[in-house]
Amino acid sequence: MVIFVMVVRVNVFKDGRFQEFVQVKAMDAPELIVLRGKAGPAGSEEYQQGLEAYGKADYKKAAKFFADAVAKSPEQGEWWLVLGVCQVLQREPQEAIVSLKKAEKLTEEPSTSRARWFMAQSYLMTEELGRAVKLLEGLANDGKAYRDDSRNLLTQMSKNGVLSEAFASSPRVSSPRGGESFVFGSTIKVAWNKVSPNFDGSYEVWLSNDGGLTCFHRLASLPADQTSWTWETRSDVGNNLALRIEAVSGDTRTMGPVSQVFSVSPPLTLTILDPKPQSTLYAGIPHEFRWALPGLAPKRYKIDLWRVVDNKQQFYKTLYVGAEGSSNSWKWEYPDPVGKDYVLRLEAVYTDSSMVSFSEGTFQVLAQPEAAVTSAYYDPSTSNLGVSWSHSIANPTRTSIYLQSVSTSEVYPLSGDASRRRGSWEGGMADVPSGKYEVHLSIVFPDGEVSAVCDNVIEYINRSESQSVASAARAESAVVDKEFLKQNYPNPFNNSTTIEFDLESPGDVELKVFNVMGQEVKTLMDGYARAGSQRVVFDATGLASGVYIYRLVAGDHTEQKRMILAK
User: What is the pLDDT of residue 18?
Assistant: First the structure.
């Protein structure tokens, strides 16, 4: 027997604070445990009579029969459930809560979710808002029944502003505040409160395009220490948008209230984002033009290059005509010709119309950038290296100077960024071993990189290294007749390399690897070793690319060399 579905809005207490939110939906009655004419548990006859009264909407009579049934068979969870429903419909919330708690313990899904829904209605009747909302949140997230009803009811309660106390420990959207009108392509700051000081889960940002009634999709998942996020509106437009934040910790999800609605409108004009005013492009170096998409994707785009002559824009040539209107960028592979006062014209072509936009300001195209090291000198009195250079780059972002050994090709960085606005640099070379070196220059700019090398080679003598060698020569115990520590191979290397050294006699040996800051990163050998040739493999998995130093200590002898990890 199946009971028809009906909706009853119960105005139980005329002065009750939450009476407008009480929504009791008469559920489908569970199938009879005992069919007519078959033996069943005690109380089956009363249960059958209760279902017949329930079907006639005589809830008072049905409640009496169901109460008699559970008195005879208190283990029947579904019987407790329909008794509780009748008590809710009879506006007896306290009695209903007792019956529904028993049903919650004795039933399985979906009956358990049904019991929780009617229990939430009972708590609304008794004005126990916190308990009601907790049950509704659980149903809204994980319920097997009444899931949509719970979400809709929570949204309605949120919009009426009655959930501030119930959501005290839930994430609430504080920005946007509601009523704002944003334009497609703009950025929106989304902010919310931290649910608790010790919360260590994550926050999820959800967007609804119908004011939070039914449809939500996730925009972002963020760490627990973040309570704001910058949303770049790239695909969502509408006049009835709303946000919701969910706090996630393991399998537990705490759903915050729905925000007030706001709007994001499509752009009224086609907007060129790049090239920017007074920017510089270089002949032969690709550059990507970007723009904001209009609300409706065109059939194709057309890109023209114009020039400003005597304060007037004049057509120069067509760069591109594309068939894919969904794209919002195009790469100019070979910018030309060299010149200035250029303007980009972009046209979005539709079936019966078109939309045109010009880039803001002008840009220039320069010849392919060049750089040269004009001089490099080494001052033995100070152990300083001086480098001067020239280049044709309008806006360099990084200038690097490094030495490369003529004999080993090993690289020694000297300057990273401080000199990018100047054409000269001077600094020390304390960590560079004695030898002959080429001076290299690298200049990075937004669209690429250029490099140069000095024509002359410098010969550098490391004073501290010379003094160490002289001291070692005077100490008989440290004198060796052949090369003690050899250069690693391969060098540069990717992940692993081999280090060899020779021992004239057995003894304790220590072989360690350090970074250029002098910090130890790995111990390769620390203990007794026999005389003769030794070989050790250095595995650099997990280390960053760069220059490393390996140092060998054997008795009174210490020796070190450099190696380059290039991943």
Answer: 45
Q: What is the spatial distance between Cα 359 and Cα 214, in angstroms, rounded to a whole number?
A: 41
C-alpha 134/C-alpha 443 separation (Å) is: 60
The secondary structure element, H or E, covering residue 472 is helix 463-474
> Residue by residue, what is the 3-state secondary structure of 261-295?
CEEEECCCCCEEEECCCCCEEECCCCEEEEEECCC
Contact 405, 435 (CB under 8 A): yes
409: left (phi over 0), alpha (psi -120 to 50) or beta: left
Residue 191 and residue 203: Cα distance in Å, rounded? 11
List beta partners, residue 24: 8
Q: Assess contact for 521 and 565: CB atoms under 8 A.
A: no
For residue 70, what is the enclosing H or E element?
A: helix 59-72
- The secondary structure element, H or E, covering residue 226 is none
Shortest CA distance to 509 belongs to which of 556, 554, 557?
A: 554
Q: Is the peptide bond before 176 cis (omega within 30 degrees of 0)?
A: yes
Yes or no: say if 42 and 68 are a contact pair by the CB < 8 Å rule: no
Report the chain's C-alpha Rg in angstroms. Answer: 39
Residue 474's contacts (CB-CB under 8 Å, 6 or more residues apart) are: none
What is the 3-state secondary structure of 541-553? CCCCCEEEEEEEE
C-alpha–C-alpha distance, residues 25 and 187, integer Å? 43
Minimal CA–CA distance to 119: which of 140, 95, 142, 141?
95
Average pLDDT along the chain, 567 residues, taken 10 residues at a time: 30 42 48 34 84 86 92 90 89 91 90 89 81 81 76 75 56 90 80 84 92 82 93 79 90 84 79 89 87 74 91 90 74 84 88 78 86 76 77 77 83 64 71 83 76 80 56 36 74 88 84 82 86 87 86 84 83
Task: Give strand pairing partners of 49.
Answer: none
Closest CA to 233 of 259, 264, 267: 264
Gap between the Cα atoms of 63 and 92, Å rounded: 11
Tokens 């000095």, residue located? 454
Instruction: Determine the angle formed by the axes of helices 111-125 and 147-159, rounding to 10 degrees.
Output: 20
DSSP state of 397: S
- The tokens describing 272, both together, are 């060129």
Q: Hey, how many other C-beta atoms are within 10 angstroms of the C-beta on 214?
A: 12
d(CA 175, CA 16): 32
The Cβ of residue 381 has, within 10 Å, a number of other Cβ atoms equal to 5
pTM of the predicted protein model: 0.34
Helix and strand numbers, DSSP H then E, in the chain: 8, 34
**DSSP letters for 102-167:** HHHHH--TTHHHHHHHHHHHHHHHTT-HHHHHHHHHHHHHH-SSSHHHHHHHHHHHHHTT--TTTT
Q: Which domains does the chain have, with CATH numbers?
A: 6-159 (1.25.40.10), 173-265 (2.60.40.10), 271-366 (2.70.50.70), 371-460 (2.60.40.10), 479-565 (2.60.40.3080)
| The pair of three-digit structure tokens given for residue 340, joined into one six-digit string | 């200035």
Can you tell me whether residue 526 is helix, strand or coil? Answer: strand
| C-alpha span between 153 and 255 (Å, rounded) | 13
